[in-house]
Design brief:
single chain, alpha/beta, Rossmann fold, Methionyl-tRNA Fmet Formyltransferase, Chain A, domain 2, 2 domains, seven-stranded antiparallel beta sheet
Length: 328
């Protein structure tokens, strides 16, 4: 699938849009819609959350909406708050645009706008449907992923595809991948909207036989006892560098990993999880296949630091083992 051509007749048509999104990935799309001159009549985003010292943290979408004087809704659960659909319907939107909102959009909302509910999805559908497609792409070792602009239906990312763009993500972490895809998706959406508005968009059904699923991430997904290949652990570090981070335990203390290199060197005499090599710039941990050279980490209660600084404060010895918390 290629990008949809921009209609000459509809390229200047400005739409009344209800925007639904939460993180910076979504805020990039919202900003592009504003810059393109579309009328954002309502921003729907996740509720504020408590940060350190009970300080309330606003979503990037809410911050941008406040900056531009856009009305805001923050439902706890869309499916349990039917009045939200009523409030959205009352704005008479031409379209609802969804980008990383964080909740399932029910049918009574999907069916509201005349041009449909359009989603900016962070994968090349039908691959990697679901909650965390960008992290899944890193975990699978993909060199490329992309954005799909799709018309939502009741299924989980099963709607018809409208346009796609492919992006290089080779050896990048989730922060880099999210930034690349956010800007690519925002640009593609703005370019695709005119064809939707003038009826020239081509809607392509997804091939169910090619579908894969990117599961929701939990904190426990970041834990490693190194009973995986070094390559897989290194991917986890890049995929989870923002949250929940890839972590393990040394003498019962949590260590979070931020920068590492997977190598195929084998130390057959060492146990999985054991420190098998120490250098001035890194220490290496034996994995089920190969070993992981760690260059940057964070010990519980300390700041993120280089391996060199870490080893100055905590003397490491060959044979010491990282393990799951329950094994301490």
């Amino acid at each position: 699938m290629t990008k949809q051509p921009m209609s000459k007749n509809a390229s200047d048509k400005k739409l009344r849009i209800v925007f639904m999104g939460t993180p910076e990935f979504a805020a990039v799309t919202l900003r592009a819609l504003i810059d393109a001159g579309h009328e954002i009549i309502l921003a729907v985003t996740q509720p504020d959350r408590k940060g350190n010292r009970n300080k309330m943290i606003l979503s990037p979408v809410k911050e941008l909406a406040l900056e531009h004087g856009i009305e805001i809704l923050q439902p706890q659960r869309l499916r349990k708050e039917p009045e939200v659909a009523e409030q959205i319907a009352a704005t008479e939107p031409d379209m609802i645009v969804v980008a990383a909102f964080g909740q399932i959009i029910p049918k009574n909302i999907i069916d509201i706008p005349k041009y449909g509910c359009i989603n900016v999805h962070g994968s090349l559908l039908p691959a990697l449907r679901g909650a965390a497609p960008m992290q899944a792409a890193i975990l699978e070792g993909l060199k490329e992923t992309g954005i799909t602009i799709m018309r939502m239906d009741e299924g989980l990312d099963t709607g018809d595809m409208i346009s796609k763009v492919c992006c290089d993500i080779f050896e990048k972490d989730i922060l880099e991948v999210s930034d690349i895809l956010a800007h690519a998706g925002a640009k593609l959406l703005v370019e695709t909207l005119p064809s939707i508005a003038d009826g020239t968009a081509v809607y392509e059904k997804q091939d169910e036989s090619l579908s894969t699923y990117a599961k929701m991430i939990s904190k426990s997904d970041g834990m490693t006892d190194f009973n995986e290949s070094a390559e897989m652990v290194e991917r986890k570090i890049r995929a989870y560098i923002d949250w929940p981070t890839c972590y393990s335990y040394l003498d019962g203390a949590m260590v979070k990993f931020y920068k590492a290199e997977a190598v195929t060197d084998v130390h057959p005499e060492d146990r999985v999880g054991a420190i098998c090599e120490i250098s001035k710039d890194y220490y290496a941990i034996k994995c089920s296949e190969g070993m992981l050279k760690v260059y940057e980490q964070q010990l519980a209660g300390k700041k993120r630091m280089s391996a060199a600084d870490f080893m100055r404060g905590r003397k490491l010895e060959i044979g010491e083992r990282f393990r799951a918390e329950e094994e301490k």
